From TrEMBL:
Domain VOC span(s) in chain numbering: 2-122
Pfam families, A to Z: Glyoxalase
InterPro entries: Glyas_Bleomycin-R_OHBP_Dase, Glyas_Fos-R_dOase_dom, VOC_core
UniProt xrefs under Gene3D superfamilies: 3.30.720.110, 3.30.720.120
Protein name per the record: VOC family protein
Amino acid sequence: MHITSTAISLTVDDVPTSAAFLVKHFGFQEATAADGFASLVREGAAGVIFLRRGIDVLPEGFRDQHAAGVIIAFTVDDLDAEYERLRSEGAPITMPLREEPWGERLFQVTDPNGVILQLVAWAAPAPR
């Protein structure tokens, strides 16, 4: 198998709002959109697709579910700078900058539809 691209598809109530959030704060571009659908792309990242909850392209048992329990994680070069940039842009930071015991530094923002976006950097490993 040769995979040519990867995308994450999330079901939300307001597709244009989530799409605009990724465009404004994360540098994505809208590749295509229609009523209840938006496909976003960004160099170096998986694509993100937003589908309106209830749309009939979703399997019947999933149409009314909202994206939940999913975190889109972006590994970045300068986590501190991204934290300050997003804070200054007014993006809702819903988990402040922190470091986990396993060496992951992270913070989270949440879009207007409740989609969690996590920015991550790895702390330098401890010397042995």
